[in-house]
Amino acid sequence: MRTLQVALAERSYPIHIGAGLLSSFPLAEQVRGNQVMIITNETIAPLYLASLEAHFSAIQCDTLILPDGEKFKTLETLETLFDALMAKRHSRTTTLVALGGGVVGDMVGFAAACYQRGVDFIQVPTTLLAQVDSSVGGKTAVNHPRGKNMIGAFHQPRLVLIDTDVLNSLPERELAAGYAEVVKYGLIRDPSFYQWLETNNDKLLSRDEAIISEAIFRSCENKAQVVADDETEQGNRALLNLGHTFGHAIETATGYSQWLHGEAVAVGMLMAIRMSAELGWVPAELESKVATLLSAWGLPVAVPEGMTPEQFMDLMALDKKVHNGQLRLVLLRELGKAVVTADYDGAALQKTLEAFCGA
Amino acid sequence: MRTLQVALAERSYPIHIGAGLLSSFPLAEQVRGNQVMIITNETIAPLYLASLEAHFSAIQCDTLILPDGEKFKTLETLETLFDALMAKRHSRTTTLVALGGGVVGDMVGFAAACYQRGVDFIQVPTTLLAQVDSSVGGKTAVNHPRGKNMIGAFHQPRLVLIDTDVLNSLPERELAAGYAEVVKYGLIRDPSFYQWLETNNDKLLSRDEAIISEAIFRSCENKAQVVADDETEQGNRALLNLGHTFGHAIETATGYSQWLHGEAVAVGMLMAIRMSAELGWVPAELESKVATLLSAWGLPVAVPEGMTPEQFMDLMALDKKVHNGQLRLVLLRELGKAVVTADYDGAALQKTLEAFCGA
């Protein structure tokens, strides 16, 4: 087991990474009250719920199984969760345990932020995406029909438990979606990690456990450092959103159902790289290098059929990074150095959108 | 104008109190972005919305008028609010302005806590209850069918603007409901204020402006001190809930519709005083003294017809002050000195409930 610390003063917490932790980690010791509710989804429940429940046989342990999918990441599902907590009389000392991917983690985290104005929660991410990204850093949210993650809170977990074994049951497509975020860390702030990923791509693809574990560790390390510097995204934390503004537009346009988040981010990163190249900040060949890396995983490298530059502009205007009407984007100044800026030539954005939309 | 500061480090903010402030205070200067949404209700809108809107003619100023009443303090209404913000493309630099009583303030505050993971908000309370209590301190929430204020957040406003003139349009019953919370401050931590209230009861009843203004100032001062010491209710902030556990049970039993919050608190405080007297902590005559004070305002001094001790126990078990199954209550050790404790003789609670329920 390897452990990382997310350094946030009185809200600091550990991320534990290792094979078999779902069973072997002494999880019950981490619970402060005598009530727990494990929230998971229909896909994950048959695989791992029993192992997790086994930790809490000595206290009140309730479970809630939600439908699986981003389209259920809504205020409505949240209400189901609150209803269950109230029905089982969970008090302010309860602990919510999120067992699942980013959807479950974001939603349970937000429920924990709001239930009785804030209770403890533990993240047990079961997808690569959640392990390297969404479970770390305390961003919680549900979607609004007009935009992703629009209703949420910053609420840090008590701990994150990453069992690398769970990736064995993860479909290829989901693993690839998570991999997009792994590449992101290399691109935005860790060029040597990016090189390492190019070198080890074949081993990662063949699911070499030690290599996957190292990729998770280095991803979480990058994420933890960014979050520790800027918990509530007043500044550099926004760099983690490389490709996300473009990607969210794709997700919104496709109704959060056809594209996985990581898939949308993969294309979004390529768009951000193209735009950075248009601005003369990175060499044009970086886009094709990254596209090669992503393609090897079966990730998409083109926008959905029929999306237009106008549609992108319209949807991106709702992004949380809009400040006083100005659209700020995360772009690459160079490989391993992202910036968030509204100070760019609009023509470069327009050209990028046109190129990707085939307009 | 008199100004109080709520001392909360980087979340500190002022409370301005005075006649005519709704028009005269330079409110636009306090807004950081270039978007504002004023949220109010059907009762208040015709009275004060235009005055408030006039401040924001230079920037995007949208308004949302909600139905009036505690029964609309729900996740559903919150969704209406989010829909309006998204439809008008409010960004993370927007400011929400809550113009109304506690229901509007609590709900708008919670919306501000969650919209895009947190935006600015300003409280412009229009009831005495909101002015002396709910608008100060950053507790925000909506109700759940099974319990009051169960879904919420701690989110401090940028400022609280208290225009004492608005009380002139407040129905007697609402003024009385707010007065119950004023008396509370005297009972829990400010015995000289309690004496002052006994002395000045007639002037308050005749709406003597200087006296009402002083009562508001001293109430806010007490609240601000408590909040500054314990922002997220880890300890002494719970003392502000004198009478509230009993009161919430009454409100839940009556569906949040027949009783005003302050009315339920009035009876709840009498129940807490009775129980404190049963425990030998305060003289039995304190209850009748306080009852006389409250009755003069037309406040109820008895529980709703038909409520049983069992019903109280059942509803109180859902209170946020339940820790690991133990019901903690705010009681008086002496006049002006409240404690929150689970360390009491259960018989005293039972006896109190029986006495009030006529069982």
UniProtKB/TrEMBL annotation, chains A, B:
It catalyses: 7-phospho-2-dehydro-3-deoxy-D-arabino-heptonate = 3-dehydroquinate + phosphate. Its main location: cytoplasm. NAD(+) binds at residues 68-73, 102-106, 126-127, 139, 148. GO terms for molecular function: 3-dehydroquinate synthase activity; metal ion binding; nucleotide binding. Binds 1 divalent metal cation per subunit. Can use either Co(2+) or Zn(2+). Its EC number is 4.2.3.4. It comes from the Bacteria. Its cofactor is Co(2+); Zn(2+); NAD(+). InterPro entries: Dehydroquinate_synthase (IPR050071), DHQ_synth_AroB (IPR016037), DHQ_synth_fam (IPR030963), DHQS/DOIS_N (IPR030960), DHQS_C (IPR056179). One of its GO terms (biological process) is aromatic amino acid family biosynthetic process. One of its GO terms (cellular component) is cytoplasm. It is found in: Cytoplasm. Residues 64-176 form the 3-dehydroquinate synthase N-terminal domain. Keywords: Amino-acid biosynthesis, Aromatic amino acid biosynthesis, Cobalt, Cytoplasm, Lyase, Metal-binding, NAD, Nucleotide-binding, Zinc. Zn(2+) binds at E181, H244, H261. Residues 178-322 form the 3-dehydroquinate synthase C-terminal domain. Pathway: Metabolic intermediate biosynthesis; chorismate biosynthesis; chorismate from D-erythrose 4-phosphate and phosphoenolpyruvate: step 2/7. PANTHER family: 3-DEHYDROQUINATE SYNTHASE (PTHR43622), 3-DEHYDROQUINATE SYNTHASE, CHLOROPLASTIC (PTHR43622:SF7). NCBIfam families: aroB. Belongs to the sugar phosphate cyclases superfamily. Dehydroquinate synthase family. Catalyzes the conversion of 3-deoxy-D-arabino-heptulosonate 7-phosphate (DAHP) to dehydroquinate (DHQ). This is 3-dehydroquinate synthase.
